[in-house]
Design a protein that fits this description.
Elements lengths: L3 H13 L3 E7 L3 H12 L4 E4 L15 E2 L3 H5 L3 H17 L4 E10 L4 H16 L8 E3 L1 H7 L10 E10 L1 H14 L3 E3 L2 E9 L2 E9 L5 E11 L5 H8 L7 E12 L8 E4 L8 E6 L2 E5 L3 E2 L11 H12 L13 E10 L14 E5 L5 E5 L5 H16 L34 H11 L4 H8 L2 H4 L1 H19 L3 H16 L13
Parallel strand pairs: 1-2, 1-10, 2-7, 4-12, 10-18
Antiparallel strand pairs: 3-6, 4-6, 5-6, 8-9, 9-10, 11-14, 11-15, 11-16, 12-13, 13-14, 17-18
Helix pairs in contact: 2-7, 2-10, 11-14, 12-14, 14-15
The structure holds flavin-adenine dinucleotide (FAD).
């Protein structure tokens, strides 16, 4: 990927030449980036437009698991689990620099839990088949204590170990954007689609605003895919105002604490929380990510904030499983994301809504893809591009992503070693982020090129002035830009901090 200015110049040149793209994808999260890679891999000229930064939405706020989903197994959704386990294997092959196998241990404090959990996870192994990363095993009390240094000892009977995989969600998104470029297509951030261009009632392009210069670009396209996550209904209403909403957003919150609350290399799974879900305590870049929650929300903020009750719930639940329960003052960062769940007919709890995806085509030919999860982004993309290409009359070509190595494969980038602390970006790293990955703001660097904001919000805020100065020099910006960037980042970082007394917001 190039610097943003170069990518924008490429787009402007295409607009000036009145060039029509085969496929325009709206939205630069997991779903949109997956669609763009898929379309480009088929040889279609492809343009992806992201209103903010790549993965600024839900796709940088996941639990960071590439998993079949033990919870979906419990719900009996076997086809989703099987598909996700197959995709896990594909990702481990195509992005080993971003995804790694991780052993999970379910500690058991009740005897009657063990046989049930053992049978369930044995079945998980069976579904994984040749994609299995290792067999699940029953552990005695001392083996469980050895696997989870820091787990509560009192009342512990034993545990069960099983294998899944974890990743860096923002890094995978950027690797997909890089892969789009490697395939000769274009992905551009800070470019929001504000209108759909139509001819004879059919979508023939989009109007998009360059979020930095402010002008509107008219872009021609044969197929347009709406992959805007929880914002998909907003884009659908550009096509046809007043359509029934597809999405029911549900908020999930994670807390990040120091790694020594649960030392060792294994993740801990709480098999049943008070609200009937599961809770993960996962080692990630030397810290622990603990979550998540499932809270229905009606609004769609770009920076959703954790509710007080969600923070309390996570601390309380994790505290029952750890010898040293984390307190509010131990939280280094709190982040929230909105699941783009495909809604039912209103009512009901979002925890029971499908994580499966849905592809929808409107009378005007706008293809909308919603739902799903990070793990299955590649399968989702195949479905969306198949439909979009057929609807637009593009030559039929198969997806070529099954064995497509993602950008950065084999690079051995130390920044992406999930098992170790991630360094704060030094000046050279900031310059590379600007020059090679379209980073345009301090937040792009400290939240998604590096995960400093997610790992330690106070540290990220302290680094912001230096990062802003280095970026300003590279981008030709003045002191006022530096001040504005620092102020904006500090305001954002405040939302990732939990104060000792209270934090988060009430809805
Ligand atoms: C708390 C939580 C935990 C999760 N954990 C996991 C997990 O561990 N594993 C897993 O597999 N999945 C997980 N998921 C699910 C997964 O993160 C999501 O399914 C996925 O990230 C959704 O991606 P998306 O591209 O559809 O949406 P988004 O990432 O939100 O992307 C949509 C993008 O569209 C852009 N956009 C909106 N409007 C416009 C416009 N007009 N023009 C241009 N761009 C626009 C937005 O800026 C945004 O970047 C989790 C989800 C949540 C909320």
């Amino acid at each position: 990927m190039a610097a943003r200015a170069e990518a924008l110049a490429q787009l402007r040149a295409a607009c000036d030449a009145a060039r029509s793209w085969d496929v325009v994808v709206i939205g630069g999260g997991a779903t949109g980036l997956g669609c763009a890679v898929d379309a480009a891999s088929r040889g279609y000229s492809t343009l992806l437009l992201e209103a903010h930064d790549f993965a600024k939405g839900t796709s940088s706020r996941a639990t960071k698991l590439i998993h079949g989903g033990v919870r979906y197994l419990a719900q009996g959704n076997l086809s989703l689990v099987r598909e996700a386990l197959a995709e896990r294997a594909v990702l481990l092959d195509n992005a080993p620099h971003l995804v790694r196998p991780l052993r999970f241990v379910v500690p058991s404090f009740r005897w009657h839990q063990m046989p049930m959990l053992g049978a369930g996870l044995g079945f998980y192994d069976l579904l994984a088949g040749r994609h299995s990363l290792g067999h699940s095993r029953l552990l005695g009390r001392s083996a469980t204590l050895a696997a989870l240094p820091g787990v509560r000892e009192q009342g512990l009977h034993g545990g069960i170990a099983y294998w899944d995989a974890q990743f860096d969600d923002a890094a995978l998104a950027l690797a997909l954007a890089g892969t789009v470029a490697d395939l000769g297509s274009l992905a551009l951030n800070y470019c929001a689609v504000e209108g759909l261009r139509k001819d004879g009632g059919q979508v023939v392009g989009v109007d998009a605003r360059d979020g930095l210069a402010g002008d509107v670009l008219s872009i021609r396209a044969r197929a347009v895919i709406n992959a805007t996550g929880v914002w998909a209904d907003t884009v659908r209403s550009l096509d046809q105002p007043g359509r029934r909403a597809l999405i029911r957003p549900s908020q999930g919150v994670h807390l990040v604490v120091d790694g020594d609350f649960l030392a060792g290399d294994n993740a801990l799974l709480v098999p049943e929380t008070d609200d009937g879900r599961v809770l993960f305590v996962i080692p990630w870049y030397g810290k622990l990510v603990i979550g998540t929650t499932d809270t229905p929300r009606d609004d769609l903020p770009l920076e959703p904030r954790a509710l007080e009750s969600e923070i309390d719930f996570i601390l309380d639940t994790a505290g029952r499983y750890l010898a040293r329960p984390p307190r509010r003052e131990d939280v280094r960062s709190v982040f929230a994301g909105l699941r783009p769940l495909v809604g039912g007919d209103g009512g009901g709890r979002t925890a029971s809504l499908s994580r499966e995806h849905r592809v929808d085509v409107s009378d005007s030919g706008l293809v909308t893809i919603t739902g799903g999860k990070w793990t299955t982004y590649r399968r989702m993309a195949i479905d969306a591009v198949d439909l979009a290409a057929a609807r637009a009359g593009l030559p039929r070509r198969p997806s070529a992503t099954l064995r497509r190595r993602l950008h950065g494969w084999g690079s051995g980038d130390a920044r992406l070693d999930l098992a170790r602390s991630q360094p704060v970006p030094d000046d050279d790293a900031v310059l590379r982020a600007v020059g090679e990955t379209q980073a345009a703001t301090v937040e792009d660097v400290l939240a998604r090129r590096y995960r400093t904001l997610f790992l330690d919000a106070a540290l990220a805020a302290a680094e912001a002035p230096r990062v802003a100065r280095v970026m300003a020099a590279a981008l030709g910006r003045n002191a006022a830009w530096v001040d504005a960037q620092v102020a904006e980042f500090e305001a954002t970082a405040k939302g990732y901090r939990v104060s000792a007394g209270s934090a988060g917001v009430g809805l």
